[in-house]
Amino acid sequence: DTEVTQTPKHLVMGMTNKKSLKCEQHMGHRAMYWYKQKAKKPPELMFVYSYEKLSINESVPSRFSPECPNSSLLNLHLHALQPEDSALYLCASSQRTRPGDTQYFGPGTRLTVL
Amino acid sequence: GQQVMQIPQYQHVQEGEDFTTYCNSSTTLSNIQWYKQRPGGHPVFLIQLVKSGEVKKQKRLTFQFGEAKKNSSLHITATQTTDVGTYFCAKKPAGNKLTFGGGTRVLVKP
User: Fold this and answer.
1) DSSP B67
2) Is B39 helix (H, G, I), strand (E, B) or coil?
3) Confidence of residue A110 (pLDDT cuts 50, 70, 90)
4) pLDDT in tens, A56-106
5) N or C terminus of chain A: which is more exposed, having fewer CB within 10 Å?
6) In this complex, is the C-beta atom of A25 within 8 Å of any C-beta atom belonging to chain B?
7) Distance CA A94, CA A103 (A)
8) Cα(B19)–Cα(B73) distance, integer angstroms
């Protein structure tokens, strides 16, 4: 099973709302990632978790707050977002964080901020 | 930061024809990966190249890593409508940060 699942598929929220994106994998992977993808652009790395610890934060604004409750789950908490934060948010996982480890992407959550 | 440039940005291909997309870096790469993203979909890993001059084939897709490890190419023969999508190259230097090129968006004319 090489599946990464993400919920919800679509999310519309106002700038004052608080919402969370969820990601799950059952491949025994110990590295999980959040990417942001704007339309017609490549994915951009936001966060990396390795063994449930945050290892990379690509200078992401604090209105995005990641959380890794256990080795299978990854959350992204959203608060006070801006319309320019509207994008496809992709979760990925890999066995470890070695350069040769393939990253498997989930289907993404399409976020619209009004 | 270090960039990976992809050309062309768009590729309109007649069904049955061949095409090539290129990925270039100003610095030597430890490896290069290729992903495909269908319209409305998510990136799907295709292949990783590590060795200088490496060539790998997947059915109608041929991937090549340059001798100097600064460029890579993806060649698709006899294009089919199922090849529609955006093809990204991505570098992954030591560590776990995946940096994507801008992508080549492929449209197939039947």
Assistant:
1) T
2) coil
3) very high
4) 999 999 999 999 999 999 999 999 999 999 999 999 999 998 888 889 999
5) N
6) no
7) 5
8) 10
Are the C-beta atoms of A8 and A88 separated by less than 8 Å? no
- The distance of B70 to chain A (nearest Cα, Å) reads 17
**Residue B97 is encoded by which pair of tokens?**
């940060």
Which residues, given as ranges, of chain B have pLDDT below 50? 1
Residues of chain A with Cβ-Cβ distance to B50 below 8 Å are 100
Vertex A29, ends A28 and A31: CA angle to 5°? 155
pLDDT score, position A99: 80
Tell me the residue ranges of DSSP E strands in B8-67: 10-14, 19-25, 32-37, 43-49, 55-58, 61-65
Shortest CA gap A98–chain B (Å): 6
Sequence-distant (≥ 6) Cβ neighbours of residue A57 within 8 angstroms: A46, A47
HEC secondary structure over A32-101: EEEEEECCCCCCEEEEEEECCEEEEECCCCCCEEEEEEECCEEEEEEECCCHHHCEEEEEEEECCCCCCC
The three-state DSSP-derived secondary structure of B50-63 is CCCCCEEEECCEEE
Spatial contact of A33 and A110, defined as CB atoms under 8 Å apart: no
Helix (H, G, I), strand (E, B) or coil at B43: strand
